[in-house]
Amino acid sequence: KPDVVTVGEAMALFIAREAKPLADVRDFERATAGAELNVSVGLSRLGFRVGYLSALGNDSLGANLLAFMDAEGIDRSHVRIDHDYPTGFMLKAMTDDGSDPQVEYFRRGSAASRLSPADLREPDPWRQARLLHVTGISPALSNGCRELVFAMARQARAAGRLVTFDPNLRPRLWPSEAAMVDTINELAGLSDVVMPGLSEGKLLTGRADAAGIADFYLERGARQVVVKLGPDGAYYADGANRGTVPGQPVAKVVDTVGAGDGFAVGVLSALLEGLSLRDAATRGNAIGARQVQFRGDCDGLPTREQLAEAMAPPAP
Ligand code: CKP
Ligand code: MG
User: What is the best residue among 39, 297, 301 to mutate for testing ligand 1's pocket, by most ligand atoms within 8 Å of CB?
Assistant: First the structure.
């Protein structure tokens, strides 16, 4: 039975091998994407049993993603193959200055966008998972996806499981900013652990700083909030303790995508191991800092051995 369950859209990812506008790129490297899949990969590499609920098309992109999930040891018994809708994919540009790369989605009408509460035919082992991780991407994909994610969060919370939430704002996927903010704050209100980035948190709460953002979610029922500050580390707060953990210096930022998911892997794994929120934020930072040094969205997510190194970088 899984320790952790996630739900979301997995996509094929094509990463430019040349630093040019996407329209001009000829040479792409094939990889995988999807925030919740990235988190599944990271937790599985750290030894947790992860169940991933999703849907893929009956096509080569879907077959490739299934093989990837198997190679990463992810339980994909709840990944449905849809014969009517395709697997989504996305393109990612290469940057040479550490800035956020241009990305383009080809995911409208994808198999995953057709997920709905009808996909919740879970046998008991899934309901017994200790933790459910969701992000703000899935509820943007369709009404069915939104209803599914809310139903899973409500059930998990009612059953006393830990619900963790990364807002992952993707304005392009939403009909309006107001719809995005309202839906995401409602889902945050069903979650125990909320992990916004600083600019995401400001937009969602209207508060000016990390402490204000944390208070906003603590007042609305979250038990623990971690605000990601990028190179400046992270701010953490629960009912009793709050503070800032410093960022980890990174020699060269190769690609920022996936840093937030890496951060989530650090926080979730640490909380599952019973560590303090401060130690969880420190681990989140270490994994986020490692992930930005790799091109793929999950290539920097560490094994146990690599995590130990990332937490205690060798003296220069
Ligand atoms: O916030 P992050 O950079 O960690 O999220 C990255 C993922 O799911 C990426 O893999 C992409 O596929 C996505 O977020 C997305 O839908 O934008
Ligand atoms: Mg993110």
Answer: 297
pTM, full prediction? 0.97
Q: 295: closest CA among 246, 256, 239, 243?
A: 256
ipTM, two decimals: 0.97
Q: What is the DSSP secondary-structure string of 244-308? A: EEPPPP-S-----TTHHHHHHHHHHHHHHTT--HHHHHHHHHHHHHHHTTSSSSSTT---HHHHH
What is the rounded CA–CA span in Å between residue 250 and residue 259?
A: 12
Please give the order of strands across the beta sheet that includes 193-194. Answer: 79-82, 50-57, 4-7, 131-135, 162-166, 193-194, 224-228, 234-238, 242-245
277: tokens are 């929120």
Cβ neighbours of residue 237 under 8 Å, at least 6 residues apart?
Answer: 211, 214, 215, 218, 224, 225, 277
User: pLDDT by residue (tens digit) across 86-108?
Assistant: 999 999 999 988 899 999 999 99
Which residues does ligand 1 sit against, CB inside 6 Å? 11, 33-35, 38, 90, 137, 168, 170, 257-261, 297
Return the ligand 1 atom nearest residue 32 CA: 10
